[in-house]
Amino acid sequence: MSSEPRPFERHDPARYTRSLAYRPRDELPFDVGAAPAHPVLMLDATVYIDAQKAGLPLALAARIAGAEIRHSAVALGEIAADIGLLHPSRPGTAAILEVLSQTLGRTDPDATHSPSSDAWLEASLMAGILARTQGLPKPDRRKLLNDALIFLSAAEAGATLVSRNVRDMDLLLQLKPQVQVLLYDRQP
Fold this sequence. Notes:
The chain is of the alpha/beta class.
């Protein structure tokens, strides 16, 4: 029998009794030009959205273009949910649906990673701890669970997660600092 803790035992909820403080920017992984610990990248949903709006920093866009990409089934699911949520009769919906559909159509199913059952359990525990300690309202909890699933999926895939979601990634990194993350700001 393995001595490795089970997913729901990897974080002691009793250890977290206060809100986690958000860290200063210079303590977070923002250096797009730095050599990656993992040459494989996994993209958060923010990356797909910003790429469509020409909102990715040029250095990051170049790095993504030259990298091996793993897609998160959770991030792609967020995009698919947006397709379902858009009201077909609203002006502009058809154009947005086309862009979102093209984005999903360009992803390689063989390069898509779904979180394991272990990742689901650990992500749920992490999201629960953070929802409690940060006092998150109920609607924000599901989003945080998705972020934790994407975060742990990147770790399982041996990839560096690329995300603009600084606040949630900061908190998740405080619970599991060994996961490789690359943060960025949207181009104006």
